[in-house]
Amino acid sequence: MQQAKAGDEGRVRLYPVHLPEQVIDGVIFKPTTQNLRIEE
Fold first, then answer.
1. Mean pLDDT, the chain, as a whole number?
2. Is 38's pLDDT higher than 70?
3. Which residues sit opposite 23 in a β-bridge?
4. What is the C-alpha separation between 18 and 24, in angstroms, rounded?
5. Are 37 and 11 in contact (CB under 8 A)?
6. Partner of 11 for a Cys bridge, out of 19, 24, 33, 40, CB 3.0 to 4.6 A?
7. Distance CA 5, CA 8 (A)
């Protein structure tokens, strides 16, 4: 589909996302922080 051109380096950023405690299908997930990776 889309490819980087020669010499065109993509920029990668990591953004911390804070996830609250949640219950999904009876399973309790503790609050945590995940990193969201964005490539430009």
1. 86
2. yes
3. 28
4. 17
5. no
6. 40
7. 5
Structure tokens at 15: 């953004």
Tokens encoding 14? 């990591």
Residue 8 vs residue 35, higher pLDDT? 35
Residue 7 structure tokens: 């010499």
Q: For the chain, what are the domain ranges?
A: 12-40
- Locate 27 and state its tokens: 């399973």
Distance CA 26, CA 17 (A): 23
Q: What is the pLDDT of residues 10-31, one digit of tens each?
A: 799 999 999 999 999 999 999 9
